Amino acid sequence: MFLPVDEQIRRIRAGAESIVPEDELVAKLERSAREDRPLLIKQGFDPTRPDLHIGHGVSIHKLRTFQELGHRVVFVMGDFTARVGDPSGRDETRPMLSEEEIESNLATYEDQVFRILDPEATEIRKNSEWLAGLALPDILRLTSQYTVARMLERDDFAARHREGRPISLVEFLYPMMQAYDSVALRADVELGGTDQRFNLLLGRTLQERAGQEPQVCLIMPLLRGTDGHRKMSKSYGNYVGIAMEAGETFGRVMSIPDTLLDEWLVIVSSASGEALATRRAQAETDPLAAKRWLAGDLVARYHGAAAAGKAREAFDRLHRRREVPEDVPAVSLSLGERGTLWIAHILRDSGLAASSSEAGRLIRQGAVRVDGSVIREGDLRLGAGEYLVQRGKRTFARVSLAEADC
After folding, report:
1. Rounded to whole angstroms, how far apart are CA atoms 355 and 28?
2. What pLDDT sits at residue 90?
3. Are residues 300 and 372 in the same domain?
4. In the β-sheet with 122-126, what is the strand arrangement from edge to edge?
5. What is the 8-class DSSP label of residue 320?
6. Which residues, at least 6 apart from 63, have a Cβ–Cβ distance to it below 8 Å?
7. Which pLDDT band, with edges at 50, 70 and 90, does 369 fall under?
């Protein structure tokens, strides 16, 4: 039994950028109720990186809304399209990934997706199921249905063409492959961010030419990352991961610029209606308090209320009371022949830096403390003893230095 169509539309429209075209969605929902048949709702993600972030979560939560309304969600793992890499918004050609990299990334997606979606109401499909089997005649028929001129209407392609930056033919194939996913699944609705509008509309075109009823495109807003400028992306390092450790999530949200706060409250918080209006007003008068609430809200959404409470307490201990966290890892290191150990090697061997060169960079930036004092000398050596070594604001290790056993 489905909810009334006007109630379904209200819930689907909430937070969406646009529905193209909305009258067709109404007609689909009316037929769905009349025939007691759920709509097929599709979205795809290419596993070009191992982590999904809260920007992805914007549309995944909307998929959950469709599930709650009784519709069928198909989450498409773009294992085949990931070999090309989505060129949307790119100003250069993406490097192609190996099958091993793709499979490694895929392995992390299911756990992350099911932090939001109902596993019992979700069908996961890999698009290699239908794309890998296409023969050259199939591909020629597919590409004959669209022109280069139409491809160059896409903003990012148009800009690169105008400025003389290369566009590979395989990048032109990417939107065709994503659109063909909709044909293979006979999708009723496809979700995507504003940067995916062209690809989603192309899906409508290919479905019509395949004799299918075209899908409705549900366009969701893009979330700007923690830097406050570019869209959230792991490539830019400005992301908050869905599976990120709770304390790290809390800290990253607390670090966003105040100018980003209203946007995040609207797009990714759980607040709505009067509660959202209250939080937006608070962001104007007391941005720190609004940010604390948002950080706790996001941690609770992905890790639970208990984790949110612990993350808030840990943040306060470290940043408000300037105390050391309770769970600082202990590391024992052996001193060298000189009876001392270079600070860069301590950072590297205790896991606070990936390499000695990174450790040197951190020291030059003033991001390293030993027993509370900022270290400025890259050639500092420490002798036997126990030290509290800190990287940045939130990462610590208790390092014990001792002579090696003979």
Report:
1. 56
2. 54
3. no
4. 18-20, 216-220, 189-193, 40-45, 72-77, 122-126
5. I
6. 41, 43, 73, 75, 116, 117, 191
7. confident
Residues 49 and 92 in one domain: yes
Both 352 and 279 in one domain: the answer is no
Handedness of CA 296, 231, 223, 191 (dihedral sign): negative
- Same domain? For 43 and 161 the reply is yes
CATH at 215? 3.40.50.620
Return the percentage of the chain with pLDDT > 70, whole number.
95
Q: What angle do CA 188, 42, 111 make, to 5 degrees?
A: 155
DSSP three-state, residue 129: helix
Read off the pTM.
0.77
Q: Write down the pLDDT at residue 89.
A: 57
Q: Can you point out the beta strands (E) in 49-158?
A: 72-77, 122-126
Residue 229 lies in a domain: no
Question: What confidence score (pLDDT) does residue 206 get?
Answer: 97
What do you get for the CA distance between the two ends of the chain, in Å? Answer: 76
Do both 147 and 281 map to the same domain? no
3-state secondary structure of 328: coil
Which structural domain range is residue 14 located in? Answer: 5-223
Residues 179 and 69 reside in one and the same domain: yes
Average pLDDT on 49-54 reads: 88
pLDDT at 91 over 60: no
Separation CA 119–CA 340 (nearest Å): 54
